[in-house]
Amino acid sequence: MSGSVSAVSSNGTYSFTKPNRESVTLVAGLGVLGDVHAGATVKHRFRMEKDPSQPNLRQVHLIHEELFEEVRAAGFEVAAGQLGENVTTRGTDLLALPEGTRLRLGGQAVVEVTGLRNPCRQIDDFRKGLLKQVVGRGPDGRPVFRSGIMGVVLSGGVVRPGDPIGIELPDGPHRPLRIV
């Protein structure tokens, strides 16, 4: 299992969407340089209200580009960066990765997967009805969250569209992703 980076995005201010960039720089322990969600402690506004001292397990947000094709078939136009992700991927089944997977993005950057993105009503504010497209139900009736994964930066580096993605699965029993 591998793939590539199809787009990178960041925004220095709180906004649902993030503009695409030629590159982003990942900084170990912090996230995307210059992005509003970078930091050692949580930067998500709702989570900061509850406890601003909790560790930031959401330093980097990754979404698979294939999701955009799926929602397009249902009538929703979505492009890279518009759902707030920092890294848009192609050819990597992000949602199937276990917790603790390490993703090598480009030549130096390493992101450890911490969990699933918690989809919120802002997705419907962006495109009415889109939230139902990215949150479904599995065969057992439980919710299935498809709006990307979150991670922390273990090793920094520059990440660009076209960079390869290397995948290192964790040792031992694999834990499925849960919302972080």
TrEMBL record:
Q: What is the source species?
A: Streptomyces rishiriensis
Start and end residues of each MOSC domain: 18-168
Where in this chain does the entry annotate a coiled-coil region?
A: none
SUPFAM superfamilies noted in UniProt: PK beta-barrel domain-like
Q: What is this protein called?
A: MOSC domain-containing protein YiiM
Q: Name one Pfam family in it.
A: MOSC
Matching entries from InterPro entries are given as: MoCF_Sase_C, MOSC_domain, Pyrv_Knase-like_insert_dom_sf
